[in-house]
Specification:
Helices cover 44% and strands 11% of the residues. It is α/β, with parallel strands linked by helices and 763 residues long. The protein has two domains: 301 residues, Alpha-Beta Barrel (TIM Barrel), CATH 3.20.20; 288 residues, Alpha-Beta Barrel (TIM Barrel), CATH 3.20.20.210. Strands 1-10-9-8-7-6-5-2 form an eight-stranded parallel β-sheet. It has a six-stranded parallel β-sheet with strand order 15-17-18-19-20-21. Helix 24 links the parallel strand 18 and strand 19. Bound molecules: glutamine (GLN) and zinc ion.
């Protein structure tokens, strides 16, 4: 009998207890010899394969596991080591691999950026002076490992050439085709060797197909995949897409590959519609991603079964593979170890391991008929029903507030020009005011106290006193440095989203719900499961205390609604925009209370606004419109003299210039020190008339800048911006820096501002 297969696209690397992170960090710290390190890592890797096998997955991915990042792995396969690192060909040594990712004293790390619309960061490959060569057939290595050590017939996973080159930098756009051309022989070699080894299936990821592509780019796919097919005609390639529907369906299904992987979760129904309209070729398999690989909710197996049935009416059973919508890299490992969750909520969650079970159940259902999985279907539906019935999902006062807000005009009371005059009088700031982005160094002592408080080893009161001392210390430091606008330092916050998640209703923190963010760094996104509502002031105590210690204005510091939304796992029973607006209303309340208590500068950070941009350009307008609405809902009701600040940590915002203008914040601070040239261009081509602080030094490195460097940065900004609108600040928060380097750098920044101010007055 023909059999439906189950498959996985990628498994979380970090392990149930983040053991992966610990081993890697011990190795970095020199506490583990390379041999021991590699042995422990192998243990973790093999364990993950075993777990997937136990879950009944037929096509288990190999080669998706990484010591840092899979894009970096791909670059290393081809020996793409940037020139500033020592490298003399051959397999890239482990030390070089980590040096590229993390930088050394002599050589800066490669740039890191967000992987499509996720919060995962990849290392951007640098192709400038590289001559790519196949120096390590990674997928072959991991295929052999799985086979020899576990008797698992793995499915090697590699990042496809078109996406790889598209995500790389160091070549001109018009060279795109030529660069791809240089990679075809190398990919061909990889495939040929895999074919020789007897590999049956290989997954080639081309998520770029889920973005908006030009006709030429789509045509390039034909050229590339025809060549790869010719090189290894016997190997069965699944061309994998994810995170969106594909626009060029007809072209994609006619590519010379043996399988197409489609995301049926994040596509708004586009992929299914395409199948219904154009059918699916008889000679290919369809890898149907039906279980959400990016969220943490249990699937309604009845709905998923129906979806698969519909898909199955266009393909035969042996053509069908059932799988998650994307790699499970973006979900935590298992719900099993969660403690302290409300039973109803816990029952409604599904992390990576549980998702694989869901895939397996659906496979059985399609194979043996719906009756065979009726019990599992009912149990999933029951869990979802109970979750949806929770009273916290339907709070009357939240509904009322939402309805009320819809009747209001959400605009500042006066135009920016009018506010500017009022605020100038109100604050009496010097030209080029200096400030910071919010956080000051979170020392070991800060972390230790927080942990002790959580464990009950010290009382809340003791913890609060400690935080107060830190605030006091840093107000004095800011006073000495001579900054113009102060912050309290955010010592009470672990993370800018988690902190608010813990203080608002409708959120739940998990104990081990970690996901990889970059390298060994993991984040634990809060779960938004209910209506979001306000409990009590969240930032008032610390802000007022800080303000009581100084005559300088202290900025109130909040995380914006879009960032809280984008960095959480969000409920799916109501639209995302609605959740954002619920969050915005709670922030509105906080803003109001801060204002009423005498805080007249309030910063609402939106560092995640841009990364949430949909992959398809046609969806940008709606997203940006909703983002602006939520931001203004939180901030627009303040008095004219109250100055609203915002902060974003990226500089290439050409795409969202209109949005930034529309936020109508009085002051925005952005990261720029690493790409000044590009940014200046944006302001040459666009007008921006509100307050703006272009980050004058990079906070990602411990290096203390020279006065002249900062002055250069400021002068460059002054070429395109009016001195009256410019603020002077670092690129981002200083949380990860050491104390002495922070103080040094800020002193230099203040001095540079002073010198520039004087030179302007002379003119
Ligand atoms: N206010 C935050 C801080 O300084 C902003 C962090 C961020 O932009 N990611 O830490
Ligand atoms: Zn930032």
């Amino acid at each position: 009998m023909s059999k439906v297969k189950s498959s996985n696209l990628g498994y979380p690397r970090i392990g149930e207890n983040r053991e992966w992170k610990r081993v890697i960090e011990r190795f970095w710290a020199g506490k583990l010899e390379q041999e021991d390190f590699l042995a422990q890592i192998e243990g973790i890797r093999l364990n993950h394969l075993c777990k997937q096998k136990e879950k009944g997955i037929d096509l288990i991915p190999v080669g998706d596991f990484s010591l840092y990042d899979h894009v970096l792995d791909t670059a290393m396969m081809f020996g793409l080591v940037p020139k500033r690192f020592e490298y003399s060909g051959g397999k890239v040594p482990l030390k070089t691999y980590f040096d590229i990712a993390r930088g050394t004293k002599e050589a800066v790390a490669s740039e890191m950026t967000k992987w499509f619309n996720t919060n995962y960061h990849y290392i951007v490959p640098e192709l400038e002076d590289a001559v790519p060569a196949l120096v390590d057939n990674r997928p072959l290595h991991f295929y052999r490992e799985a086979k020899q050590k576990l008797d698992i017939e793995g499915k090697p996973v590699i990042l496809g050439p078109v996406t790889f080159v598209k995500l790389s930098k160091g070549y001109n756009k018009d060279e795109f085709k030529t660069v791809i051309e240089s990679f075809i022989p190398l990919y061909s070699e990889v495939l040929r060797e895999l074919q020789e080894e007897g590999v049956q299936w290989i997954q080639i990821d081309e998520p770029i197909l889920s973005t908006t592509l030009s006709k030429e780019e789509v045509a390039l796919f034909h050229h590339v995949y025809a060549r790869l097919h010719k090189a290894a005609p016997d190997i069965r390639v699944i061309l994998q897409t994810y995170f969106e529907g594909i626009d060029h369906y007809e072209e994609v299904i006619s590519l010379p590959v043996q399988g197409i992987g489609l995301d049926f979760v994040h596509d708004n129904g586009q992929n299914l519609t395409s199948i219904q309209m154009y059918g699916f070729p008889k000679d290919k398999v369809l890898a149907a991603g039906v279980i959400n690989g990016r969220n943490i909710w249990r699937a309604d197996l009845d709905k998923k079964f129906s979806l698969l049935k519909e898909i199955e009416s266009y393909v035969s059973k042996e053509q069908l593979i059932i799988q998650p919508s994307s790699s499970l890299l973006h979900t935590p490992v298992t719900v099993k170890n969660e403690v302290g969750l409300e039973v109803i909520l816990k029952e409604a969650l599904s992390f990576a391991d549980e998702k694989l079970s869901e895939v397996n159940i659906l496979m059985k259902g399609i194979q043996n008929g719906k009756d065979s999985i009726q019990e599992e279907i009912s149990s999933s539906q029951n869990a979802i029903l109970l979750l949806n019935e929770l009273s916290s999902k339907n709070r009357l006062e939240v509904n009322e507030n939402m309805a009320k807000s819809q009747t209001l005009k959400i605009e500042r009371k006066a135009s920016f020009q009018e506010r500017q005059i009022i605020q100038e009088k109100f604050f009496q700031l010097p030209l080029l005011p200096t400030t910071t982005i919010g956080s000051f160094p979170q020392t070991q002592a800060v972390k230790k106290h927080r942990l002790q408080c959580r464990k009950g080893e010290i009382s809340n009161h003791q913890y609060d006193s400690f935080i107060k001392e830190e605030i006091h210390r840093w107000i004095n430091i800011q006073e000495k440095i001579g900054l113009d606008v102060f912050v309290h330092g955010e010592f009470e916050r672990t993370d800018m989203v988690e902190y608010f998640g813990e203080k608002l209703d409708g959120f739940q923190m998990t104990t081990l719900g970690w996901v990889q963010s970059y390298g060994s760094r993991c984040v634990k996104p809060p779960v938004i499961y209910g209506d979001v509502s306000y409990r009590e002031p969240m930032t008032l105590k610390e802000t007022l205390y800080a303000q009581s210690l100084t005559d300088k204005p202290v900025k109130g510091m909040l995380t914006g609604p879009v960032t809280i939304l984008n960095w959480s796992f969000v409920r799916e029973d109501i639209p995302r925009d609605e959740v954002a607006n619920q969050i915005a209303l709670t922030l509105q309340k906080e803003v109001e209370i801060l204002e009423r208590s005498g805080i007249h500068m309030i910063q609402v950070d939106e560092p995640a606004l841009r990364e949430g941009l949909p992959l398809k350009q046609v969806k940008w307008d709606d997203y940006l419109h909703a983002a602006v609405y939520a931001f203004k809902l939180a901030t627009a009701f303040v008095k004219n003299e109250t100055q609203i600040h915002t902060h974003m940590c990226y500089s290439n915002f050409e795409d969202i210039m209109d949005t930034i203008r529309a936020l109508d914040a009085d002051v925005i601070s952005i990261e720029t020190s690493r790409s000044h040239g590009e940014l200046i261009q944006v302001f040459e081509e666009n007008t921006y008339d509100k307050g703006i602080g272009l980050g004058v030094y990079d906070i990602h490195s411990p290096r203390v800048p020279e006065i002249s460097e900062i002055r250069n940065h400021i002068n460059r900004a002054l070429k395109v911006l009016d001195s009256k609108q410019c603020w002077i600040n670092p690129d981002c928060g200083l949380k990860t820096r050491g104390i002495s380097e922070t103080v040094e750098a800020l002193k230099i920044m203040v001095e540079a501002a002073k010198q520039t101010r004087e030179s302007l007055l002379v003119k």
